[in-house]
Amino acid sequence: MSLYLTTEELSMRIKYEPRYIRERMKDRIFKRGVHYVQPFGGRKILYIWTEIEKLLVGKGTPVKEDNPMGKIILRKVR
């Protein structure tokens, strides 16, 4: 059974400010449907503690960021 936390409850567990979680971590670190849900299509966000805990200890899959620099192929100039 999953434990769902509000932003304030999560901030107390991971020691980050609620504002930082909402503005920085929500879309960059946490993935919707994996790390958090918005029940009934509302504004309230509930974080899934078991998935966030896996991410913290390194057993979860981090969100893949689109890095345009990673697609550059360097060629040797003759």
Q: Compute the number of structural domains.
A: 1
Number of strand segments: 3
Task: Write down the overall geometry.
Answer: elongated
Order of helices and strands: EHHEEH
Tell me, rounded to a whole number, the average pLDDT.
83
CATH architect. name = Orthogonal Bundle
CATH class: Mainly Alpha
Structure description:
By secondary structure, the protein is of the alpha+beta class. It has a single domain (about 1-78), classed as Multidrug-efflux Transporter Regulator, Chain: A, Domain 2. Helices cover about 35% and strands about 10% of the residues. A three-stranded antiparallel β-sheet has the order 1-3-2. The termini are far apart.
Topology of this protein?
Elements: E1 4-5, H1 7-14, H2 18-28, E2 36-37, E3 46-48, H3 49-57
Antiparallel strand pairs: 1-3, 2-3
Please give a handful of descriptors for the protein shown.
9% strand, alpha+beta, 78 residues, 36% helix, three-stranded antiparallel beta sheet, elongated, Multidrug-efflux Transporter Regulator, Chain: A, Domain 2
In short:
The chain has 3 helices and 3 strands.
